[in-house]
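User: For documentation purposes, I need each entry recorded in a consistent format: the amino acid sequence on its own, followed directly by the corresponding structure tokens. There are two entries in this batch. Please keep commentary to a minimum and don't merge the entries.

Assistant: Recorded as requested. Entry 1:
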Amino acid sequence: MSATVFIDGEVGTTGLQIRERLGNRADLSFLSLDEIERKDLGRRGDMLNSADIVILCLPDDAARDAVAMIENTDVRVIDASSAHRVATGWVYGMPEYGPGQAELIAAASRVTNPGCYAITSVSILHPLVAGGIVPASHPVTINAISGYSGGGKQMIADFEDAENGAYANTPFRVYGLGLAHKHVPEIKAWSGLDKSPLMVPSVGHFRQGMIVQVPLQLWSLPGNVSVGDIHAALENHYAGQRFVKVKPLAETADMSGLEPEGLNGTNELHLHVFGNAEAGQAVVMGLIDNLGKGASGQAVQNLNLMIGADPDTGL
């Protein structure tokens, strides 16, 4: 049986990638609006209430407005914005979060798709906090770099427009200097932290790809924690997962560097544990495509669960 999908915000960066990933699937049919109709609230409302699955690829306020327009109780929603990521009544759309999460997503009427920085940070921190290795009260810091596509159409233009782009000649840019990035509440909540992590995001002059780093002073953690303990906790948590992979310590130890574009075009998230046992230090790094597992790929994975398709379909 075919499921009907309406992507509200289909012409945005994430919407376009979701539509491309869904391709010409025989198990889906699509509702769509032309440019003029998208401005017609009546027609948008018709689409929002006619689909089996609505995928929202909108700014936060517009996503909230769209949900308010849905009166048909049979319509199920995947929201790719950050509007509902810590909201009551919404299921967190990270199937690998823990036992039973994929089943919760499959049965949900409202699913909030994780942010790119957030799903990577949470994938590192949640198993460590839940396992008692990193205390919930620990002062966590996160350093991250993303491709400029994470900023949407305007940032893409700022980097790609050789004549008028604000960052056309900028190789690297740190931002979020007010230390209040919109993914921080999501990271705090879903990692199980008592206090907000200190997150320093940056953007590089490449279109897509991402590395998130969580440094850990092992000597500051209770219980004489080792690099191997960190790795084992992550490996045990993600054992058997298709899309989240913890790379072997020996493989990581042989690496001389990590490139942010290494997983572009995939729905995978790779975790590496780098360590210096003598100094009592470790850095856990997550590698991801910010438009893949960090956005459109994750939305397709959630869609597959919600309609009972093979989770790998289209990925």
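Entry 2:
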Amino acid sequence: MATKVLSIPLLQEEYSENADSSRWAIEGWSRGGMMTYLSLTRTNFPDYPAGGFKCAIVSGGIANLRCSSDESTFMRRLYEVTMGKYKEKEFYEKCESRSIVKFPEKLPKNTPILIIHGTNDERVLPHDSIDLSYKLLDLKIPFRLVMLEGGDHFLKKHRKEVDEMRRKWFEKFLR
């Protein structure tokens, strides 16, 4: 199945009749969180009237791919399946190129990010979000970090709380 990838200007052109492009947001979970961070680095267009996304939400998002040899066999194979096999140095460079903690200065300074992570997440380690938050503080990028005690990767015990946080975040920045 092919995936259609649209740029912001193309989205604006294609959906301008049905969507208010001055109120767009972006959200991702887990690997989708990593893709959200990467998308944010590419969507601050000066010629785009809204300037980019009004806000973002990342839940359990990958902020630092750890593709070194000490990574678990399962995760290493997962990375190879999704990014291809490379020589050790190329593989490490590929991981670095997708790890927002390595280049947080490319994130837009005017897009507030809600970062939600469970403290018991074993798929994406909680310190991915914590490490990124230190960098966002230094860069004065607006964000809110919420660490949910006992939360797993899917935040099953916190579903209602997460849904309410998401709703309020979108209301706050998209009105």
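Summary note for entry 2:
The domain at 23-42+51-64+99-174 is CATH 3.40.50.1820 (Rossmann fold).
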